[in-house]
């Protein structure tokens, strides 16, 4: 059986270096076979991948994780470590106060059927709306009260991450998009993380499935033909990277490396991310467990000098994505920002004690 690589993200807190993503389990990604999803979560846990990523805005996901953990407790079995998020609606940023924050956290606790959240990852849609540091301070207060174990961030750029850290917010992690196609965290954020003891949890490592054999040698998809918003999002990243021809050169290089190591090219791509400075773990999306063996291959792979020599000129020639982490996505008038959904919490929850979804 493959040995699972682990890392410590806080004193005494150890996680596997592959975290199962929860976005694909959200109801707005299509109907989820709930019974199969619960069984497949168990398959991941039994193979040693016992940490999952979720969010207050992933419809139905916290409830699913909560049902799984309740069943495991009833059977006397270990459950999941759940990393959730606090993502206030963009339209609500101006009224995010202590009550709002407590309401969101209370709702997550109820959905997850927990008394304490392992990690809450904080996101703020618009830096022009003041209050991010204050909102993080409210989360810090809940941490001191014992409702939250650790705090992290999601998609903050380097200056605003530094501002949170300088304000005394003890971020143990920052969740960011990081892949061979999108290396923006390497521009500055990773160095800040190493300086301040904050590690990166990386999503988008496979660009929504684009970095796979499925797209090797395939013609560029025509506008309007991609199956879902995730693929639209990552096709924009490919465009920033240098376009479809550059992307195909990268896939060919990954295929050459994968063939030499007898793994999938996706495994090579995830291993590359795990080897980058300040990276604690990669978040790999999976609706079900049918690719779990491929996922585990990453722990047996070591990239060597020849592998890096093949990738280096392709990465050096890539013009982007440029700038700091998540800067392109924050431009609501640009192509990356126009496809974002900003109000998925829909409305602030009621104060604790009131009805919650």
Biggest pleated-sheet summary? 8 strands, parallel
Element-by-element helix/strand order: EEEHEHEHEHEHEHEHHHEHHHH
* N-C termini distance: 40 Å
DSSP summary, beta strand count: 10
* Classification by helices and strands: alpha/beta
Outline:
globular
Explain what this protein looks like in three dimensions.
- With 357 residues, the protein is of the alpha/beta class.
- Helix content is 39%, strand content 15%.
- It contains 13 helices and ten strands.
- An eight-stranded parallel beta sheet has the order 3-10-9-8-7-6-5-4, with helices on one face.
- β8, α6 and β9 form a beta-alpha-beta unit.
- α1 packs across α2, α2 packs across α3 and α8 packs antiparallel against α11.
- The chain is globular.
- It starts with 5 loop residues before the first strand and ends in a 19-residue tail after the last helix.
- The relative contact order is 0.15.
Task: Give a brief rundown of this model.
39% of the residues lie in helices and 15% in strands. Residues 350-357 have low confidence and may be disordered. By secondary structure, it is an alpha/beta fold.
């Amino acid at each position: 059986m493959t040995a699972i690589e682990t890392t410590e993200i806080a004193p005494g807190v150890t996680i596997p270096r592959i975290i199962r993503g929860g976005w694909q389990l959200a109801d707005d990604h299509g109907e989820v076979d709930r019974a199969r999803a619960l069984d497949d979560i168990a398959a991941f846990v039994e193979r040693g991948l016992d940490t999952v990523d979720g969010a207050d805005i992933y419809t139905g996901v916290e409830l699913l994780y909560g049902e799984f953990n309740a069943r495991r407790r009833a059977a006397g079995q270990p459950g999941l470590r759940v990393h959730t998020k606090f993502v206030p609606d963009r339209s609500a940023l101006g009224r995010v106060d202590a009550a709002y924050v407590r309401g969101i956290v209370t709702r997550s606790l109820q959905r997850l059927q927990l008394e304490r959240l392992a990690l809450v990852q904080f996101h703020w849609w618009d830096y022009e709306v003041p209050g991010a540091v204050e909102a993080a301070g409210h989360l810090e207060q809940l941490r001191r009260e014992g409702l939250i174990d650790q705090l992290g961030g999601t998609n903050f750029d380097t200056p605003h991450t530094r501002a949170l850290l300088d304000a005394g917010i003890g971020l143990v992690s920052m969740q960011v998009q990081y892949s061979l196609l999108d290396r923006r965290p390497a521009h500055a954020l990773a160095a800040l993380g190493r300086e301040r003891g904050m590690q990166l949890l990386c999503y988008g490592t496979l660009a929504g499935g684009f970095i796979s054999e499925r797209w090797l040698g395939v013609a560029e998809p025509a506008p309007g033909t991609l199956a879902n918003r995730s693929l639209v999002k990552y096709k924009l990243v490919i465009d920033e990277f240098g376009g479809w021809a550059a992307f195909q050169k990268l896939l060919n290089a990954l295929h050459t490396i994968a063939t030499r190591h007898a793994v999938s090219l996706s495994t090579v791509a995830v291993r590359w991310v795990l080897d980058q400075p300040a990276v604690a773990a990669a978040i790999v999306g999976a609706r079900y467990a049918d690719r779990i063996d491929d996922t585990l291959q990453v722990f047996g792979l070591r990239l060597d000098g020849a592998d890096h020599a093949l990738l280096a000129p392709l990465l050096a020639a890539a013009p982007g994505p440029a700038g700091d982490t998540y800067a392109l996505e924050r431009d609501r008038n640009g192509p990356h920002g126009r496809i974002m959904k900003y109000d998925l919490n829909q409305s602030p929850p009621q104060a604790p004690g009131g009805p919650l979804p």
